[in-house]
Amino acid sequence: MKRICKQVVLVLVLLAKTDNCAEAIDYSNVYFFGDSLTDSGVYSPILASLRGNPTYCRFTSNPGSNWADNLGEKYGKTVAPAYSARGSSPALAFDPIDSGNNFAIGSALINTPPESTLYSEIPPVSAQVRTYLARGPLDQKALYCLSGGHNDVFSQVSAVTMADGIRAIEKAANDLVTQATILQSAGARNLIVVGIVDISKAPIAFYEHNASGSPHNLVE
C-alpha cells in the first residue's frame, strides 16, 4: 500500500507541473479509462429515471465534478461518457457512445468483470481500452489517462488468505501496466497512469474494522 501511495503522490506532482504549462500544450483530446473515481456519468440514464434529476447522477459529491472533468476543463476539452448504462436482465447493459472520451465505469475492475450478476457486463479497464482502439487509428496528439485497481482491492478484502489476496492484487497491478503498454504500442505518446488512493481511509475499511475487530491487512 505504501508503494501505491507513492505512485499517487508522483502522479499528483506530475499533474501539478502541468498547471504551469497548460497553456503551452494543445492536446487534440483527452481520453480516460478506469472506475468510479473517473466515471463521468455512465449510469446517468438509469439514475435520472429513478431520481428524476439527471444532474445528481455522478460518483462525486453531487452535483460536483471529478478529476477527469477538471483535467479536461484545464485543457479546454469536454469530457463525456463513452458508455451508457441501460437497465437489462439479469445484468445491466453498457452501450458504447462513439462520441464519448471517458470510458471509465463505476465498479469496473482492471481485467475481469465483477462477480455480481447485476454488474457482470461492466467492461473492465482492459475492455475499455479495446473499445477505444476499435474505433480506428490512435490519436497520437491526445492525452491518455489510465486509472483503476480500487475495485480489485475491494474484491480481495474477504480473500481466503492474505497470500491469495496479495497475489490477486499484484496480478491486477500487472494487468494495468499491460494496458499502458498496449496504449503505448498503439502510438500513445502522452500517457498518465494513476495509482489507487489510500483505501485504508475508505468507508469499506472502516466497516471491515468494525465487523472483524481489526483492520484488514490488505487495506493497511
Written description of the protein model:
With 220 residues, the chain is of the alpha/beta class. The chain has a single domain (2-219), classed as Rossmann fold (3-Layer(aba) Sandwich). It has seven helices and five strands, in the order H-E-H-H-E-E-H-E-H-H-E-H. A three-stranded parallel beta sheet has the order 1-4-5. A two-stranded antiparallel sheet has the order 2-3. Helix 4 runs parallel beside helix 6. The longest helix has 24 residues, at 162-185. Mean pLDDT is 83; it is low at 1-22.
Question: Can you summarize this structure?
Answer:
The chain has seven helices and five strands. The chain is an alpha/beta fold. It has one domain: Rossmann fold (3-Layer(aba) Sandwich).
Across the major sheet, the strand order is 1-4-5
CATH fold-level topology: Rossmann fold
Count of DSSP-assigned helices: 7
Q: What are the secondary-structure elements, in order, as H or E?
A: HEHHEEHEHHEH
- The helical percent reads 25-40%
Give the strand content: 5-15%
How far the N terminus sits from the C terminus, by CA atoms, comes to 7 Å
Which class best fits the helix and strand makeup?
Answer: alpha/beta
The overall pLDDT average reads 83
Shape annotation: globular
* CATH architecture identity: 3-Layer(aba) Sandwich
